Amino acid sequence: MKSFTAPAIALSSAFFLLFFTTLVSSSSSFHPIDHYLISCGSHEPSIIDLDHRRFTGDSSTSASRFFTTPSTRTIPLTNSDPASSNSSPLYRTARAFSSPCKYSFPIQDHRGGTHHLVRLHFSPFFNSTSFDFSAVQFHVLANGFLLLRDFSIQNSPKDGIVIKEYIIRVDSDKLDITFVPKKRSNFAFVNAIEVISAPHDLVADVAQFVNSEKNERINGLLNKGFETVYRVNVGGPKVTPFNDSLWRTWVPDGEFLEKSGHEGSLEIHFSGRIQYQMGGATREVGPDNVYNSARVIKSSNNVIPKSNIAWVFPGIEGYKYLVRMHFCDIASIGPYMLYFNVYVNGNLAYEDLDLSAMTNMLLASPFYADFVVEGLNSESLNVSVGPSNMSLTNAVDAILNGVEVFKISNSLGSFDGELCVESVMKSWRRGNAVVIVPLLAAVFLLLTASVVVQRRRSGGRDTVGWLRLPVDVSEINLKYGSQQSSGKL
């Protein structure tokens, strides 16, 4: 089985920097060109207490231009019992749709194709219209990507809030997000929408494909879309959107940590400054609060532990996944003291990883590595780090700061099954035809029956006097007479 070795890293560091890093200066702060925050169903702006962001109501004058659907096909909903809802004002209103409806956002940052973050917020609540949130089931489309299929909130978390995040490529001057009710459910809904242009280094075109047979470089990721499945801060606390320049949430790793085999691991926290540098990870790739904490394996008494630290992520199947692992040596007392192996799904993905070689011998400097795996034959994904043959005694022998897992869109542009956007819309139109044609037939039969009954009641006599037209009436006079009759009606 092929793997990366220390000599290969030393001889071709530029090659691996191309693999796993991007050349963007970390000193410049990020200001997204496109930045839309929409509170759906609301006339007033919603201010988020945690990160102080302002979401504009889609019923307001400034945001109504994004909503391109006639108001007769939508229903603005307001929570009738705000005290019982989530504390965030973002989930006190929503907009429901009875037929395909679209939000259209102008995109300035699209030359050459750029990636944008799209977040969709869903949270049911009680409302005076007795709208049944539990019965909704719908699809969501975005510029050729099928984001959600047959989506419902019946299995939502305890707090009732579901946030779906995507990174999608935009090649045109607008981003259309379309909500399509499923035929049997009648309605779709959404509480809030975020559209934010992503920094250009957030998605790399190349990654390392890892399986049991071989490791190989793959490219073409810039043309794909990504759905965030897991975002984990290893060894540290929850990171809220307030502490992330892209307003992301990173959850602690405790629930994913494999219970057996990590007894020798330690949580560490770093109070110094994270050294972002040219060629390494930027704050938009990972914030300080991810890189200043970690979980490590450390040898003692001249004995290097034989075990790895492992994390297991359930619910992985049917797609390719991008696994991004974040590293920052905040534990070593000097360079070239930390060597370890990285495993993905039990396969050796990186052998004798030396963070000093990746960061120009600078400690506390972040670095990330991207791996692609198949999720076809398993129901979970696991990653692990552990000592290598080059690990040193009385030193740190493995480290991990963060993990992200993204579902990669398939060849149809779908994140949810073998179905494309065109098929969803055709299915909706066919479903309407199935309903409309019988309805028209029923109306026709009722009208016919009404005429027959009326004739019988009048004794079979015509109720309208008919006059013969003269045989010499010209075509012009006939048309004129027709126009006169129409005008009277």
From TrEMBL:
This protein's UniProt keywords: ATP-binding, Glycoprotein, Kinase, Membrane, Nucleotide-binding, Serine/threonine-protein kinase, Signal, Transferase, Transmembrane, Transmembrane helix
Specify the Malectin-like domain's residue ranges: 38-408
Provide the protein's localization.
Membrane
Q: Which Pfam families match?
A: Malectin_like (PF12819)
Query: Quick check: keyword Transmembrane helix in the entry?
Result: yes
**Residues spanning the signal sequence:** 1-26
Q: Where are the transmembrane segments?
A: 433-453
Q: Which GO terms describe its cellular component?
A: membrane
A GO molecular function held by the record:
protein serine/threonine kinase activity
Top-rank lineage group of the source organism: Eukaryota
Protein name in UniProt: Malectin-like domain-containing protein
Please give the organism. Coffea canephora
